[in-house]
Amino acid sequence: ALHVLIGHHGLFSLTPIWLLSFAGMMLGTWKQFQKNSSAGFLAFPVLLVSLVVVGFYLVKSDNYGGHTSGLRWLIWLTPIWLLMLLPIADWIANVKWGRWLGYILLAISVFSASFAAFNPWRHPWLFRLMESWGWVRY
Q: How far apart are CA 69 and CA 85, in angstroms?
């Protein structure tokens, strides 16, 4: 679970921009259920599907995706997670520290995605860094 979420193949360590997406899911779900609003009508179903998919692979598998640049079984969720990112991105864009937070999270995410541009069938940069430091020996 550690490496799936924040470790060498981690969803949030390789693409931390998804932290904002999950915050958007939580905000949308709260708006939908607390205020009886239709503002976040997609947020709860997307949050539920995301938790089920991640939970399934945590319980039923120890496969990070093989020699890939990330968790290949979560890639299909990318388009809907991008939609969930929008409300939080709009909210944090109003303050200077929020914009910088968004820039930093996006820069790390873009670096992780571009690291595998020439060969996606290799371990991510974070795994290779941990391996060179002797933290992982698989």
A: 22
